Amino acid sequence: MSITLDTITNLSKRRGFVFQSSEIYGGLRSAYDYGPLGVQLLRNVKEQWWRSMVQLRGDVVGLDSAVLQARQVWQASGHEEVFTDPMVECRNCHTRHRVDKLTDPDLCPNCGKRGEFTEARDFNLMFRTNMGPIDSAENTVYLRPETAQGIFINYENVRKTQRLKLPFGVAQVGKSFRNEITPGQFVFRTREFEQMEMEYFCRPEEAGQWFEYWIEARSGWYRDLGMNQDNLRIRKHDDDELSHYSAGTVDVEYRFPWGWDELEGIANRTDFDLRQHTEHSGQDLRYYDQEADERFFPYVIEPAAGATRTTFAFLIDAYDEEEVRGEKRVVLRLDHRLAPYQLAVLPLSKKPELIEGSERIATMLRPSYDLEVDVTQAIGRRYRRQDEIGTPYCITYDFDSLEDSAVTVRDRDSMEQDRISIDRLEEYLGSKLTS
Ligand code: GAP
What we know:
Blueprint: H1 5-15, E1 18-20, E2 32-34, H2 36-55, E3 60-62, H3 71-76, H4 79-82, E4 84-89, E5 96-98, E6 121-124, E7 128-130, E8 140-142, H5 148-153, H6 155-162, E9 168-177, E10 192-202, H7 207-224, E11 232-236, E12 249-256, E13 259-270, H8 272-281, E14 287-289, E15 294-296, E16 299-306, H9 307-318, E17 319-324, E18 327-332, E19 343-347, H10 352-365, E20 371-373, H11 379-389, E21 393-397, H12 399-404, E22 406-411, E23 417-421, H13 425-432
Parallel strand pairs: 3-9, 19-20, 19-21
Antiparallel strand pairs: 1-2, 4-5, 4-6, 7-8, 9-10, 10-16, 11-12, 12-13, 13-16, 14-15, 17-18, 21-22, 22-23
Helix pairs in contact: 2-9
This protein binds glycyl-adenosine-5'-phosphate.
C-alpha cells in the first residue's frame, strides 16, 4: 500500500523506532537515534546482510576498520579533491541547496524567490577535524565518508593473513559521515549513517561477469527478506553520473513515498583504488599469480548499501493497514528475521499466577528469540500493539493454561490462533521461525 512519510515518521516516534537526535534541545537536524525497537530492526538488517555476504559464502571475509584514517588515504582515493556537490545559496533567505537536486534551477524551494542564487561552488562533503590538540593542516583528519577505503588500505593485510586467492571479497559494516548540503526525508539522507559495503577483488577480465553476478545477488537479498518486487528496480547510471572511480554503476532503487530513489550502488571500481594507494603509499598492492607468474592489479566490484536507509525501506515496505471488524488495523508485515521481536508473551490478565506462567515461558524462550512480555491493557489492544511493531507471533497464557499446560499462539498476518501444549512450544515455534 502507499503511505506518506508522515505516517512512518509518526509510527517510528510513537513506538520507539527512531527519535530525533538531541530532541530535548530542539533537535539536531539530520542525525537520528535508534530507539529500543529501531536498534533491533537495524541490527537484524545488518545481521542478515552479514549472513548472506560473509557467513554463507566461502569467498568473503569481514573487516572492521577505524573511522579515522590518515589524510593521505583521502588524497589517494580522490575524495579530498573531488568528493563534492555543487552548492548555491539563496541571497534572499540564505538557505543552501544542492544544484543537482533543484527541480527549477532559478527558484528557491525555501522562500520561493526567483533568480536570487549565488554562483554555484563545489562543497566538499567530508567532515574535517584535528588529530590531537592543535588545529593545523598537518593534524587534519576526516571522518570517513565511506567504509570502502578502510578495505582498500587493508587489502594486503587481509589477503596475506587469510591466504586468499582471487576472486575474494572483504565486507564491512559501519558508520560513515557526510556533510550533506540537503539532508532530508527522515533517515533517508543523514549526515551520520551506516553502510554495508563489500569489495570483491577479481581478475580484470572477469569483472564484467562478477558485476552482473552481484547485481542479481543483491536484488535477490531484498526480495528474499520480503521486500515487494514491484517496489524494487535496477537503474543504470548515465555516463555523466558516474563517480570518479567507476567504469559502470547500477543502483538498486526502492519506490519511496516521494518516488524511486537509491538503496544501494553496485559499481565496477576497476583497479582505481589499489593503483592510487600503490602510487601514494609506495607499497606494491599488485596481486601475484604464482601459476601464471604474473603481477597485476585486481579489479573490484563493489555492492555498497546503506544500513540505515535499507532499514527505513524495510519499515516502509512492511507497513500495511486493513479493516478488521469495522476497525483499522495497522500491521508491519516484517519478515520474522527482521522483526524487532519475534514473539510477545501476554498473560491474559494481571492475575499473579498468569504473570508467573508467562514469565516462565519467556525465560524458556529468551535464549532463542527476541521477545517481550506485555502485561498492560486489554488483550485486544496488546495484540494491536504487537501487530503495529511487527511481532510475528503472540503467545497468550490464560486461565486454561493453568489446567491444560497449553497456550494460544496467534499469527500476526492471518490472526489465526493455535492451541499448543507448552512442552511442544519450542518445536512449534522452531518450525515457524527458521529461515
Ligand atoms: N563506497 C561507495 C559508496 O559509498 P554511495 O552510493 O555514495 O557509494 C552507498 O553510498 C550507499 O550508502 C547508498 O546507496 C546509500 O544507501 C548509503 N548512503 C550514502 N549517503 C547516505 C546518507 N547521507 N544518508 C544515508 N545513507 C547514505
